[in-house]
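For the sake of transparency, this paper describes our internal protein records without simplification. An entry from our holdings is shown next, in its original layout:
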Amino acid sequence: MREWIINAIIDLPVPWRVFLLSMLPVTELRVALPLGLVWGVEPVSNYFYAVLGNIVPILPVLYILDPAIQLFSKVPFLKKWIDKILNSAEVKKKVYEKYEIIGLIFFVSIPAPGTGAWTGILLAYLMRIQRWKAFLSISTGVFLVGILMTGVSLGVVSLSEQSSIGVGIIALLVLISWFWLASRKRNRK
């Protein structure tokens, strides 16, 4: 079964791979954009497919989130998982709540772990922002982070064509930043 899924994805045209990867909560466009460039998708088309893929699930998820949380919270092992996710989002909510719409745009547009459209949906849900306002705010954040990630990705791809040392340095900086952010998060608890 797994091989069939992998082959089905590999057989898709590359722009559609970018689109589908952008829809997933784990990858979003932060992973799909650089991969699309590495796979040879022209930057403007790559941006379009990644942003569109990241935006498509926002409005449906905003509409089904509340009923889904209520339904799945009735199952004990799912309730623990849902509570963990909501508690994590609740911590982030406190930082951005006073800025509401602008805070949500800013939050989604930060290319860091634990931010993005899917977590933005949770924040909008917790802050009780109207669905259309939340959709527009999250979409704006996706447009902005798409521009930022395209620029950064083009720089990395350009460096990789010139020197593998440049890619190594960038990868090292990304890893150091990632671990630093993770350690700060652990120290706050």
Remarks:
- The CA atoms of residues 44 and 150 lie 9 Å apart.
- The first helix runs from residue 2 to 11.
- The mean pLDDT is 83.
- The radius of gyration is 18 Å.
